[in-house]
Design brief:
Layout lengths: L1 H61 L5 E14 L8 E13 L5 H4 L1 H12 L4 H4 L2 H18 L4 E12 L1
Antiparallel strand pairs: 1-2, 2-3
Length: about 170
């Protein structure tokens, strides 16, 4: 009888040890898996960040020639009648252009200001109030002006155009 009690106690102890061992193994495997996963992703993120940094350096240094700079040139304020037929409406705006220019030709910007201003006045006067009353219209005007500048003035490349103010009445 004593042997049977011992055998039964040993079976119960072994059965209690199996779930405890199972939980211990599961917890250890979870820690190992999470460690490996985090190290894998952190290495990938680090690699991608270094690639992005290298690409930015290439963009910042490789795309521009050493003799070219980007400069901002303020064209000033414009008051232009719009093409509305039903009433007299006008736009009052202040424009600055971003120009890619060679160092030795920066002085020519001032000489070409009259051409820039003429292009702005002529282009704006072809638009109506309805066309310029939404953001898409202002964006289209900006794109048209940049295209017009670049096709008429060969010494410079207009990179962007900025409205410092834009009002219609």
């Amino acid at each position: 009888m004593a042997d049977e009690n011992k055998n039964q106690d040993m079976k119960e102890n072994n059965q209690n040890k199996i779930p405890v061992m199972f939980y211990i193994v599961m917890i250890i495997s979870i820690f190992i898996t999470s460690y490996l996963t985090s190290s894998f992703f952190s290495n990938n993120i680090t690699k991608k960040l270094s690639e992005v940094t290298k690409n930015e350096e290439k963009i910042n240094t490789g795309d521009k020639k050493e003799s070219e700079n980007t400069v901002f040139y303020k064209l000033g304020e414009f008051i232009v009648n719009l093409a509305n037929k039903e009433s007299t409406r006008y736009v009052k705006t202040d424009i600055t252009i971003e120009v890619m220019v060679k160092k030795e030709k920066k002085e020519l910007l001032k000489e070409k200001e009259a051409i820039f201003r003429d292009i702005v006045i002529n282009k704006i006067s072809t638009y109506t109030t309805q066309q310029l009353s939404n953001p898409e219209g202002k964006k289209r005007l900006k794109e048209d002006l940049i295209k017009e500048f670049n096709s008429n003035i060969g010494e410079f490349k207009i990179v962007n155009l900025y409205y410092n103010s834009f009002m219609m009445q």
